[in-house]
Structure formats: C-alpha cells, structure tokens
Amino acid sequence: MKKILKGNPTERDLLKRISALVESSHATVIKQVNASVAELFWQVGYMVNEFVLHNKRADYGKQIVVTVSRQLQVRFSRNF
Hints:
The structure is a single chain. This protein is mostly helical. It has one domain. It is built from two helices and no strands. The longest helix has 44 residues, at 9-52.
C-alpha cells in the first residue's frame, strides 16, 4: 500500500514519526498477546495433566481433552 504524505516537510516528518510509533506499538501488542496466549495454553495443558491425568499417560486422556475443549468452546468461542 502506497502512503500519501501531504503537507510541508515538517508535517510529513511528524506523520512518519507518529506512524512509526503506532506501528511499533502495534507490533509490541501482537508479541504480548501471542506470549500470553502461549502461556495460557501451556497452563491449560499443565492443569489437564496434573488434575485429570495425574501426570500419567492414559488413553481416556484424549477424550477428556475433547470433552473439555467442547465445553470451553461453548463459553469462549472456537479458540479452544
């Protein structure tokens, strides 16, 4: 997408600098959200492992994950 900058050089410079700040902040927010979501899913997995599977492998564990996932989808949308 081509940027259209109007005005005198000082105004263009100001617009460029503000745009860079907005883009930098946007990138930072995306990184923070991604890190938070990764931590959330890790904690969910940890809780299922500890409280449901009791740190053991179990065939029924796969079904538990599906059941919990469906219940969470009802409440929080398709991300689970």
